[in-house]
């Protein structure tokens, strides 16, 4: 969607939203997750209302009200609604940015996913952690469950999990003990998928583990080396693959007088 500005030669503003959501477990919901149920307080329940339909609706409502009030925009404003964000964006925004239609938008600044805030406090996110999904294959000696089989995959799995979740606890403690830090300043690692085994009394020849890591900008250059060290310490026969890696070390400049986009945004917030 495009709202033309008065000066088409200027770089434009992009307001981006994603439309896809992660899977849902209906049995844990108060209301049917795709019903968009509105309760007596006006709260809407539905999968994706926070992530990130609410932000997309805010963009639309703000522009509708400004346009209705007769406001004229100097710059052109584009709105995009893309799929595949929850899977890394490679088939959604990743394809769009390669197309001429995107290049012709002449975008100077993009605003993307944020959080709805019920207070008068304005929160701005000017950087993002690097998504780093890790797929680990742990191979070991199979055998009967009644034996002490050496070099087995389960024991290696224990060592891998101890290292990964130990680092998770370290980062969580770092965040908890320093009030000046926010979630985006630390690296999160979580065990999300474990696959393997054929039956109760047989040690598996291979176990597969998936780790969801979100690497803080300060950890971008060192995290993978840590991972390699953990896997090496757990034993041989362990390999990993990291997909959909998009390094996001750079952050938008929010120093006054150094970024015209930030100066305009900051001035508008202070005025408001």
UniProtKB/TrEMBL annotation:
The gene is Acy1-L1. Its EC number is 3.5.1.14. The keyword Nucleotide-binding does not apply. It is an enzyme of class 3 (hydrolase). Zn(2+) 1 binds at residues 18, 51, 113. The active site is at 20, 85 (proton acceptor). GO terms for biological process: amino acid metabolic process. GO terms for molecular function: aminoacylase activity; metal ion binding. This is N-acyl-aliphatic-L-amino acid amidohydrolase. SUPFAM superfamilies: Bacterial exopeptidase dimerisation domain, Zn-dependent exopeptidases. Residues 136-234 form the Peptidase M20 dimerisation domain. It holds the Pfam family M20_dimer. Keywords: Cytoplasm, Hydrolase, Metal-binding, Zinc. GO terms for cellular component: cytoplasm. InterPro entries: Aminoacylase-1_M20A, ArgE/DapE_CS, Bact_exopeptidase_dim_dom, N-acyl_aa_amidohydrolase, Peptidase_M20, Peptidase_M20_dimer. The keyword DNA damage does not apply. Belongs to the peptidase M20A family. Gene3D superfamilies: 3.30.70.360, Zn peptidases. Zn(2+) 2 binds at residues 51, 86. Its cofactor is Zn(2+). Binds 2 Zn(2+) ions per subunit. It is found in: Cytoplasm. NCBIfam families: Ac-peptdase-euk.
